[in-house]
Amino acid sequence: MSISEIQFEEISGRDGNLGLITLTRLDALNALNQAMLQALKKQLTIWEAANHIKAVVIRACEGRAFCAGGDIRSVYQRKMANDPLLQQFFRDEYCLNRHIHHYLKPYIALIDGITMGGGVGISLHGSYKVATDRILFAMPETAIGFYPDVGTTYLLSRLPHNIGYYLGLSGARITLNDCVALHLIDHGVKRDIFPELIYKLADTKFQNNPNETVKDVISGFSVPSAESALLQHQKEITECFSKKTMEDILQALEKHKSTWCHEVAAILRTKSPTSLKVTLLALQQAEALEFDDCMQTEYRLTSRFIQEHDFFEGIRAVLIDKDQTPCWKPDTLKKATATQIKKYFAPLEDELIC
Length: 354
Description:
Blueprint: E1 2-3, E2 6-11, E3 17-23, H1 34-49, E4 53-60, E5 65-67, H2 72-80, H3 86-101, E6 107-111, E7 114-116, H4 118-121, E8 128-131, E9 136-138, H5 152-157, H6 163-170, H7 176-181, E10 187-189, H8 194-203, H9 210-219, E11 222-223, H10 234-241, H11 246-255, H12 259-269, H13 273-286, H14 291-305, H15 309-320, H16 338-343
Parallel strand pairs: 3-4, 4-6, 5-7, 6-8, 7-9, 8-10
Antiparallel strand pairs: 1-2, 2-3, 10-11
Helix pairs in contact: 1-3, 2-15, 3-14, 6-13, 10-11, 11-12, 13-14
């Protein structure tokens, strides 16, 4: 089965086949539209139940991106058209993220290029994450009046030294060495070896524990990583992002002697105040939640964001008109009150059921 933006094929192997997914929407940096989400969920379900499929691999056609995220332009257009099914896009996406997290067979993401937003959701929740030195990871949602979703409240809240808070609030971009150091990526590999790796996975006889077999195969292609540039700022990140409120985080950054901290503070000042406060609380809560509970919380948050101003104002300013001057409402942290923020987390009548 295939649609124009995503292809599915089976690679014959020694004791079973590999299910191979290829993202082919190159003109949109493989941004995920609803048809892609639904097709991917359907095919994963088929392969999960198929005895002749021993593992699943996801990759992208050569280009700048593995997957730059969800199709946010389409989300904006649907909002402007008052599409009553807009929320279904996110339900489909989050149910797919949950399916990947719990997938019963090895799910191997081969990542090359930009990997943001929804692209993180279809890769980093899988069993094995393999990337080249062209990976560029980010969750930049606070810049468009949103928050880091697709299960990343779970991922980011578990990173050491409060680094996940820094990444989620600032939207900072990090590279392969950072991703390996933070264990977001299991192995760095050389460029252009993905075809050979896929062949090796297909040609290898899986043992009683298929995960160990996959681990051994991938390890054979692994290359050493260099020092993480991000971890050079570990001390400053911990000092500032361990604070419990956004106001205190910003104050700590602005009072710090480090120029780097001042630059981060300036970046945070450009973000939606509502997004910052929701993100901070979501990460704090996620530390004590299981993955499915994080997804439930995210669905609640998203259901509120798509009814409010900032998300669509952010998309307009960054992606549609590209004037880069969003008008946030409220426009200060002080005006984004605790009462307003807590409403985003309230249970829904129609909760996430997959």
